[in-house]
Amino acid sequence: MRTIAEFEAAARERLDPAHYDYFAGGAQDEITLRENETAFQRLRLLPRVLRGGDKRDLSLTLLGAPSSMPILVAPTAFHRLAHPDGELATARAAARAGTIMIVSMAATTAIEDIAAAAPDLGLWFQLYLQPDLEFTEAIVRRAENAGVRAFVVTVDSPVLGRRERDDRNAFHDLPPGLAVENLRDIGENRSGGTASHVRDIVMSALNWDHIAWLRSKTKLPVLIKGVLHAEDARLAVHHGVAGIVVSNHGGRQLDTVAATIDVLPEIAAAVGGAVPVLLDGGIRRGTDVVKALALGADAVGVGRPVVWGLAAGGREGVTQVLELLREDFDQALALCGGRRPADLTPDQVRR
Ligand SMILES: Cc1cc2nc3c(=O)[nH]c(=O)nc-3n(C[C@H](O)[C@H](O)[C@H](O)COP(=O)(O)O)c2cc1C
Ligand SMILES: CC(C)CC(=O)C(=O)O
């Protein structure tokens, strides 16, 4: 398979249609879902020439974590719905690719098992802070003990977005045998949960004080994921976050919000290099990665492409997707006259 679109088609053939819809879908009219991709397609590149050098180096270090390329695995829930090996397969593929995997709190495999399956993997942990802060703290301790190296707090979900495909398919719970394993066995009366369980514990009250609270509870870097407004990026730096993920949750939260690539320049300007800026949403080609890095991202995350690889071929499928993106990015970088990710500059993108 040569493209992410081909992996998606293969995944679609294999998946239960309701599960395919869960992975593929966005909120309401799915305008932002489509816009994330079309916004990249609208941008035109201006390569630099005669800058030759035969060795390219795609590697970078993010908050102390080395990565072989500026393409990370974004947190997506429920990998065992996509493939029986679930998050273990994803983690092994991410480790082989030498990249960082941000594990979803709503993973269907326990964080300890993921860490054990891929000991060399740079693991970050995505958190939905919950109204019960003691419970949240227990999850934080559990993830720390498993060896994660950063927390990524999702801040675009005071409530969950309305995904009409899921409503139509009545997909609101995991099938028997699958659970949100990271919420199991913590505290009293926590049987570990289903999708509706997670739905109940995203926190409407979430505010900057909670970020300060989390920072007081862990020495690990705390990033926030789901920033679209430059003023929030400024506030994030002011509140001492270690990094910002420009994200609209893959178009799954509020429909008609801006495409991430369109707001990236404002956010990069607001942050001014104070902390790393990551971007996710709509990355399907190496040229998308080039555009994001040129416009100010330090790295990008991929959500659905990894799920399609997993559904199409388990660990090997995820490996193929990550290598396809790596090669595609490497070639686009070379064609833009760059040797390292940091060589890309905003003037190389015409908006
Ligand atoms: C099926 C699915 C599940 C997701 N689960 C989570 C999650 O548990 N936590 C989270 O912060 N983001 C979640 N996201 C959002 C992704 O982290 C990411 O922002 C988005 O997928 C990027 O867009 P892309 O799919 O176009 O690459 C999910 C996205 C998808 C498609
Ligand atoms: C379990 C869900 C809340 C995971 C998620 O963030 C999503 O489906 O977008």
Which features does this protein show?
351 residues, alpha/beta, TIM Barrel, 8-stranded parallel beta sheet, two-stranded antiparallel ribbon, 12 strands, globular, binds flavin mononucleotide, binds 2-OXO-4-methylpentanoic acid, flavoprotein, FMN binding
Topology:
Blueprint: H1 4-14, H2 17-24, H3 31-42, E1 44-45, E2 60-62, E3 65-67, E4 71-73, H4 79-82, H5 86-97, E5 100-103, H6 111-117, E6 122-127, H7 133-146, E7 151-154, H8 164-169, H9 195-201, H10 208-217, E8 222-227, H11 230-238, E9 243-246, H12 260-271, E10 277-280, H13 286-294, E11 299-302, H14 304-335, E12 349-350
Parallel strand pairs: 4-11, 5-6, 6-7, 7-8, 8-9, 9-10, 10-11
Antiparallel strand pairs: 1-12, 2-3
Domain module tally: 1
Number of strands: 12
Give the distance, in angstroms, between the N- and C-terminal Cα atoms. 31 Å
- Name of the level-1 CATH class: Alpha Beta
Cofactors and ligands: flavin mononucleotide, 2-OXO-4-methylpentanoic acid
CATH superfamily: Aldolase class I
Shape: globular
Strand order of the largest sheet: 4-11-10-9-8-7-6-5
SSE order: HHHEEEEHHEHEHEHHHEHEHEHEHE
Radius of gyration: 19 Å
Q: What are the low-pLDDT stretches, counting only 5+ consecutive residues below 50?
A: 188-192
Architecture per CATH nomenclature, i.e. the level-2 architecture: Alpha-Beta Barrel
Overall pLDDT level: 95
Number of H- or I-type helical stretches: 14
Active site: 249
Pfam family, one: FMN_dh
Domain FMN hydroxy acid dehydrogenase: 1-351
Cofactor: FMN
